[in-house]
Amino acid sequence: MTEDDLAHPAAKIPTLAPNWSWLAWVTRIGTQVLPSPRKHLVQTAILPLAWQTPASAYDQKQVVPLTPYALDETSLIDALQEHGCFQPDQRPQPAQKLFRSETSEIIIDGSSGCLILNTPRTAGGYAPAGQFLKASKGGVEIGVKENDATVWVSSLDAKPIGESSRLLVTHLTDLQNTGIRYGEAARQTLLDWGHLPYLVRAGQADISIRLSPTSRIRGGRTRKCPQIEAPPQKVFTTRA
Q1: What is the pTM of this model?
Q2: What is the per-residue DSSP string for 14-74?
Q3: Which residues are bridge partners to 151 per DSSP?
Q4: H/E element holding 175?
Q5: What is the pLDDT of residue 108?
Q6: DSSP one-letter code for 161
């Protein structure tokens, strides 16, 4: 929007988050106030509010000819794909709650209930019991067992996971107070805070980490393992 748009808004200002706020999982989005619509912008696509300044006043190469707060998702996705905001295989599917970031480092799959973090130095995510996570950039594969859990592997020395000399494996299930009560199964309404001690749900996960040929790894404090030398493409498997 321009400063003139901000000074003379529409009769009813819409809620800041539009109905396509899910796009933040795919690419970077935001609102910018400009002194002039002719100001050079580095953004790939622009959706002008056009309260006072018409969309035609902006650089036409970047303008998406849609009204930000009155558009359908399919038209938006088609327009952004034409502007190169994402590749065809990264096309969002809001109805299925399937989103892949432009770097493929965050993947949300609503059909399976999984969230995947896929970077060279942190890899893993959340999955219901019985589901499988694969984070190829970090060389990590996780099978969640018994109970839903968030499981990930992080390098602690700024090296990629497969080359790191120190890894942190985190396995989180569900933690609640003793005697806590909710108003429904979705646990949206809290009726009673409960009391100590905390109750942690037991869970298991099989974690496979692909190591570089020169890696040497041994277990941490939770489980002592003999030192091993990993051959090329060897997969080291542990149980969390």
Answers
A1: 0.78
A2: PPSS-TTGGGGGTS------BS-TTS----S-B----SSS-GGGS-TTTB--S-TTS--HH
A3: 125, 171
A4: strand 175-178
A5: 97
A6: G
